Amino acid sequence: xxxxxxxxxxxxxxxxxxxxxxxxxxxxxxxxxxxxxxxxxxxxxxxxxxxxxxxxxxxxxxxxxxxxxxxxxxxxxxxxxxxxxxxxxxxxxxxxxxxxxxxxxxxxxxxxxxxxxxxxxxxxxxxxxxxxxxxxxxxxxxxxxxxxxxxxxxxxxxxxxxxxxxxxxxxxxxxxxxxxxxxxxxxxxxxxxxxxxxxxxxxxxxxxxxxxxxxxxxxxxxxxxxxxxxxxxxxxxxxxxxxxxxxxxxxxxxxxxxxxxxxxxxxxxxxxxxxxxxxxxxxxxxxxxxxxxxxxxxxxxxxxxxxxxxxxxxxxxxxxxxxxxxxxxxxxxxxxxxxxxxxxxxxxxxxxxxxxxxxxxxxxxxxxx
Length: 369
Known about the structure:
Blueprint: E1 2-6, H1 11-26, E2 30-35, H2 40-46, E3 52-54, H3 65-89, E4 93-96, H4 102-111, E5 116-120, H5 127-132, E6 138-141, E7 156-158, H6 165-168, H7 172-179, E8 186-191, H8 198-206, H9 208-212, E9 217-222, H10 228-235, E10 245-248, H11 254-260, E11 263-266, H12 270-278, E12 283-285, H13 295-305, E13 309-311, H14 321-331, H15 333-344, H16 351-368
Parallel strand pairs: 1-2, 1-4, 2-3, 4-5, 5-6, 6-7, 8-9, 8-11, 9-10, 11-12, 12-13
Helix pairs in contact: 1-2, 1-16, 3-4, 7-11
């Protein structure tokens, strides 16, 4: 089969698409990618050998009517371009992961009778997916509670959020060796997504003395590139302290880093949660409060209600609630074991396989017709 994937805007849309691409290619399918020429998708897909075709697409600002005119014009032109492209590559199915670029790509597929499958990573469906779900062959979800937003779809399935094999297959031993963490030590991983999170950084920095007072604890603290210098200066780690507090601006090898951890403090973005879930790491989540429709809080609540993590709001992180919850997570081995067991019951580790099955079945129905 020839399968076109499309998504844009954030790495949260692209990483699950690339995870699905790995699964589909392992099954012998040809995978192509459609995204915007200047978006993060161009860079991330460009790091693979998946053929990439660019399409212009943009959102609009309700306060500036001309942005709507320009946005609609781009979508119309890109829809026509996608139809021409489809006549050449002849896809059996198109899979959209969110972002404005999915609209012209999926509309072209609809117009040509090509089935469209959508994947939603968050607990609240994005605008593009809500719009396209009306005519989609299938909508695949990470969280079942947003199923009522997939209006008009022929099928709705909860598949989980696909995670790349470099994360799923990472091992604790590899991660510990890479980071220089003793096998019998306790490791706390702190990160705030690709750009970092100042509130999380500040809260953990404020606990420096308490955390380093634990002789068996190592902290791996990924600050985000823009936060690194400020965090380094605030921590003022001695050479001896640096042996147990590993401060870094970013980490390219997140799979091994996650696998090495015993506990995590993190935001609740779709990709972060999927990776934490895939490796079943106990976590304290601090959702980013300004995400669209507050979807990170919804993500966190769903995961916490399943017993996989604890959480607190960003507004609470400067209060005593944060050190109390973090110390409980570090001290209570039974709590961490329960969170790990609950996380293993989530569909995440098989999400790429689950989604690939829906994609294949949707394509087969077109072939039968």
